[in-house]
Amino acid sequence: MGDQTVHALQGVDLEIGSNELVAFIGASGSGKSTMMSIIGCLDRPSNGEVWLNGSEVARMSDDELARVRNRDIGFVFQSFHLLPRMTALDNVAQPLVYRGIAPGARRAMALRALERVGLEARMHHRPNELSGGQRQRVAIARALVGAPALLLADEPTGNLDSATARDILALIREVHAAGQTVVLVTHEPEIAAQCQRVVRLQDGRIVSDTGAKAAAGAGAR
Ligand SMILES: Nc1ncnc2c1ncn2[C@@H]1O[C@H](COP(=O)(O)OP(=O)(O)O)[C@@H](O)[C@H]1O
Ligand SMILES: [Mg+2]
C-alpha cells in the first residue's frame, strides 16, 4: 500500500486433508480472508506454493484455474453475494451455466441443492424477499450445487443473529458430516469450538493449530 509493504501472510505452512472441518480464527487484519482467497485460488501468494488436489496452483493455465474455481471450490461470504434480480433457484443454478449444463438439468440440480438446505419452498423468491439466514442458505446451496471438493466460508454467520448463526453452523456441520471438506473463518468462539480443527492467525502467521487429523496426509501439521 503506497510505499508500505503489508505482509498479509508470512511463513504460513498448512495442510488440510479431505473431509476436515477447519476454523480460522484471529483478530481483524490477522490474514484470515487473505488465507481463504489463496486457498480458493482467487489470489496468488507472492512467494511459496499452493497445492490443491495434488496440483500446484501456480502451474495451472488460466483455463485450468477457471475450471478449478468453478468445480472444486465453493465460496460462501458474510454478505451472501446473491444476485438481487434472480430467484433463489436461478442464483443456485448460476455456477452451472459456465459448465455448459442444459437449463433443465441446471434447474433439477439447483432444486436438489435447495432441498438440501431446506429452502425448496422459497425457490421462486428473490433475495430481498428472504431473511438473512435464508439468503445464507441459498448461498450455501449455490456453493454446493456443483459438488466442490472444498467449501470455503468467510465469516458465514457474521451478519446473522445468534439463533440464525447456530442454524447455519448446524447446516455446515451436516454438510461436513456428509463428507465435505470445509474451511470457515469465524471470530465467534462458540462456532470455532464446534469445529474439529482450529487454526489461529496473528499478524499473518499461524500461532496455533489444534485438532488436526492424525492420519498421514490429512493435515497432521
Ligand atoms: N488489497 C490489500 N492491500 C493492502 N493490504 C491489504 C489488502 N488486503 C488485505 N490487506 C491487509 O492484509 C492484512 C490481512 O487482511 P485480511 O486477510 O483481510 O484479514 P482478516 O480477514 O483476518 O481481517 C491486513 O493488515 C490488511 O490491512
Ligand atoms: Mg476477513
TrEMBL record:
InterPro entries: AAA+_ATPase, ABC_transporter-like_ATP-bd, ABC_transporter-like_CS, ABC_transpr_LolD-like, MacB-like_ATP-bd, P-loop_NTPase. Residues 1-219 form the ABC transporter domain. This is ATP-binding cassette domain-containing protein. One of its GO terms (molecular function) is transmembrane transporter activity. Belongs to the ABC transporter superfamily. Macrolide exporter (TC 3.A.1.122) family. CDD domains: ABC_MJ0796_LolCDE_FtsE. The keyword Transport applies. Keywords: Antibiotic resistance, ATP-binding, Cell membrane, Membrane, Nucleotide-binding, Transmembrane, Transmembrane helix, Transport. The keyword Transport applies. It comes from the Bacteria. GO terms for biological process: response to antibiotic. One of its GO terms (cellular component) is plasma membrane.
